[in-house]
Amino acid sequence: MAFNPIVDEEKCVGCEECVDVCPVEVFEMQDGKSVPVNAEECLGCESCVEVCEENAITIEET
């Protein structure tokens, strides 16, 4: 099973919490927003979902 992290750009405020908490460095900041540049590395742990106060991140199972 694979996981696909999705960031809602409208909700993301660029706090970088997801960047800091992700154990496999899925996210990086681009133009003040979090972007899942290494989405294929996602473990589905949902640490980013839990730490995002704006509820801007969802994880899809593929």
Give structural notes.
This protein is an alpha+beta fold and 62 residues long. It has one domain: 2-Layer Sandwich (Alpha-Beta Plaits), CATH 3.30.70. It contains two helices and four strands, in the order E-H-E-E-H-E. The strands form two sheets. The chain has a two-stranded antiparallel sheet. The protein has a two-stranded antiparallel sheet with strand order 2-3. A hairpin with a 2-residue loop joins strand 2 and strand 3. It starts with a strand and ends with a strand. The model has no long low-confidence stretch (mean pLDDT 98). InterPro entries: 4Fe4S_Fe-S-bd, 4Fe4S_Fe_S_CS, Fe-S_Ferredoxin. Keywords: 4Fe-4S, Electron transport, Iron, Iron-sulfur, Metal-binding, Repeat, Transport. This is 4Fe-4S binding protein.
Kindly list the characteristics that best describe this protein.
2 helices, single chain, alpha+beta, globular, 62 residues, 26% strand, Alpha-Beta Plaits, two-stranded antiparallel ribbon
Tell me briefly what this model is:
GO terms for molecular function: 4 iron, 4 sulfur cluster binding; metal ion binding. Pfam families: Fer4_10. By secondary structure, this protein is an alpha+beta fold.
Topology, element by element:
Blueprint: E1 3-7, H1 17-21, E2 28-30, E3 33-35, H2 47-51, E4 57-61
Antiparallel strand pairs: 1-4, 2-3
Number of β-strand runs: 4
Find the structural class using helix and strand composition: alpha+beta
Just name the CATH architecture.
2-Layer Sandwich
- Helix tally? 2
Largest sheet, in brief, is: 2 strands, antiparallel
**Count of the domains:** 1
- CATH C-level label: Alpha Beta
Mean pLDDT: 98
Give the strand order, joined by hyphens, for the main sheet.
1-4
Strand content: 25-35%
Shape: globular
Radius of gyration: 10 Å
